[in-house]
Amino acid sequence: MPLSTSSNFARPDDAFRAIMEAHRGFTDEQSADFDAALVLILANHIGDIDVLREAILLARRRMIDGQQQQQQQQ
Amino acid sequence: MAKANTHQAKTQFGYRRHPDQDRPGQSAAEHPVVVVGAGPVGLSLAIDLAQRGQRVVLLDDADRIGEGSRAICFSKRSLEYWDRLGVGDRMVDKGVVWSVGRIFHGEQQLYQFNLLPDDGHKRPAFINLQQYYAEAYLVDRISELSEINLRWRNKVTALESRNDSVALTIETPEGAYRLHAQYVVACDGARSSLRQMVGADFAGQVFEDQFLIADVKMTAEFPTERWFWFDPPFHAGRSALLHRQPDDVWRIDLQLNRYADPVVEKKPENVRPRIARMLGHDEFEFEWISLYKFQCRRMDRFVHGRVIFAGDSAHQVSPFGARGANSGLEDAENLSWKLDRVLRGASPASLLESYHVERSGAADENIRESTRSTDFMAPNSHQEARLRKAVLSLAKETEFGKRMVNGGRLSVPCSYDSPLSSPDADAWRAGPLPGCSMLDAPVTMRAGEQSYLTDAFRQGGTDFTLLSFSNGAAIDAPVGVKDICIGGEDGLADPAGLTAKRYDAEPGSAYLLRPDGYVAARFRQPTRAGVAAALSRAQGLN
């Protein structure tokens, strides 16, 4: 089963909002702790190592794009 | 590794001059196989080779065993191997049998696990036994075997590889002499001098965290279980391990700050308060204290021509998982039957390459598991520590969190992706795959006596064996293959049905076992030609 990147929520704004609101009132440190737990919970729910690896690659591409943008700005 | 001056050598052996040392000039004595290093791996390998009829010279640069605190956990697999070497009962009788582990976080138990929850196995998941007892029992066994010549205070100082032999220069208290061997097996430990002599490197990962290991003598009421703490109240922010050994000795393993000063930390007056905090009392004596840093690394090649490496000389892991000595013993059982066949001319020398393939694959698995455990105990960054914190916190209320907590994944036999295995041609729902270790199960002998499959295998002579499940037809095993039959008039009875269940067997099913107890092939309806082809493949003949 490949990673699904089509829009899966009927109301995507609700999902984004729920995650954002969960961080309200947290310091950056607390937010990072919270995210770590959330990632583990969601990863276990997916329960498919190939899908997880694909998701990790997709997320990592943000980092690479970000680094390239930084380098171009310099 | 430094030593507290509290523990005496258990056994001392005398150096004895051998006639090989009196040979003039260039006429060095010729031997089929020389094993270097009389630790658990070298001793076991020598016994195994001798039981197969090989004459073995076993060299060790020391004259004693028993110093220090080294391996303590010996696995079911190792005990089954030692049964075949005739020392299993002594090990188990002296050892502390255990199968339950508990993981704590702070003061709270996160979970417990049982490494051998089902019945019907001759041997337990683990015993704890000080390495010096294991070595002493193996040395005793060697004294019964005239094929083995064990030479203490014989230190290999030079090695020259030739096309048809290896020339060794050996230093003794009475000067140097030379020996020629068809094969040399280096079981000379993590700091192997033979590894340097063949010019091989030993690359891998060094862990910066320091761990304090103390063996303390006390009478205590802790159960015979492996207890592991993350962030215990007596050792805040770090991990701790408690394990019971024979003679009221307890192994305590405390993670230290990576910047801790080893000289200061291992002073008994500094260790004592830590241990007292852990135990809640001060009624103990030190047997041993040392500070460790761990490395996970292996040789690129385990076979260097006629010089073969086994045990810590070939691979090194962190101790969390009991994968050091146990994997060395698996090396020995994997190598001995192959080397025996090559020395007898029954298989080509290329069979030894399968030792490298199978055991370096096993080393990679052991290194991967032990690295993961060590990284979980000693996170390398803030984010790694954060992920660990999340896992430990989730473990309190979720099953998946418990399963992610890594306080050491304990040694089980590796499965081999091996050129010697014949892939399944039939449909199987369960049972050990080709390349996996045989499973034990209870059986009943014809006379009604209770026994085990591992005993039947051992009593057959630990050669290639066809394990077949009777369908009434006669067994058609190739010449030279032993047979174990389950069911039928002459076979072993399987009263609980556990053997058939563990092997997913139907009447007629058969497993071809290698001399090390690994599955070479399995068949729903074995034919003579099919078994013969699998046998040739497993013997490296095609």
Descriptive account of the structure:
The complex is a heterodimer of chains A (74) and B (542). With 74 residues, chain A is mainly α. Chain A has helices at 12-22, 28-46, 49-73. With 542 residues, chain B is α+β, with helices and mostly antiparallel strands. Helices cover 28% and strands 27% of the residues of chain B. The model of chain B is unreliable at 1-9 (pLDDT under 50). The A-B interface holds A 32-33, 36-37, 40-41, 44 and B 383, 386-387, 389-391, 393-394, 398, 400-401, 404.
SSE arrangement:
The complex is a heterodimer of chains A (74) and B (542).
Chain A: H1 12-22, H2 28-46, H3 49-73
Chain B: E1 11-12, E2 29-36, H1 40-51, E3 56-59, E4 64-65, E5 73-75, H2 76-84, H3 88-94, E6 96-98, E7 100-105, E8 108-114, E9 126-128, H4 131-142, E10 148-151, E11 155-161, E12 166-172, E13 175-186, H5 193-197, E14 203-217, E15 226-230, E16 239-245, E17 249-256, H6 262-265, H7 268-279, E18 285-298, E19 303-304, E20 307-309, E21 315-316, H8 325-344, H9 351-377, H10 382-395, H11 399-404, E22 442-444, E23 450-452, H12 453-459, E24 465-469, E25 482-486, H13 498-502, E26 510-513, E27 519-523, H14 528-538
Parallel strand pairs in B: 2-3, 2-13, 3-10, 7-15, 13-20, 24-25
Antiparallel strand pairs in B: 1-4, 5-9, 6-9, 7-8, 11-12, 12-13, 14-17, 14-18, 15-16, 16-17, 18-21, 19-20, 22-23, 24-26, 26-27
Helix pairs in contact in B: 1-4, 1-8, 2-3, 8-9
What percentage of amino acids of chain B are in beta strands?
25-35%
The end-to-end distance of chain A, rounded to whole angstroms, is: 41 Å
Sketch the major β-sheet of chain A: none
Kindly estimate the percentage of residues of chain A that lie in beta strands according to DSSP: under 5%
**Structural class designation of chain B:** alpha+beta
Q: Give start-end ranges of low-pLDDT stretches of chain B.
A: 1-9
Series of secondary-structure elements of chain A, N-terminal to C-terminal: HHH
Helix content of chain B: 25-40%
Sum up the overall morphology of chain A in one term. Answer: globular
How helical, in percent, are the residues of chain A? over 70%
Low-confidence stretches of chain A: none
Instruction: Give the overall pLDDT of chain A as a whole number.
Output: 92
- Quantity of strands of chain A, as a count: 0
Radius of gyration of chain A: 15 Å
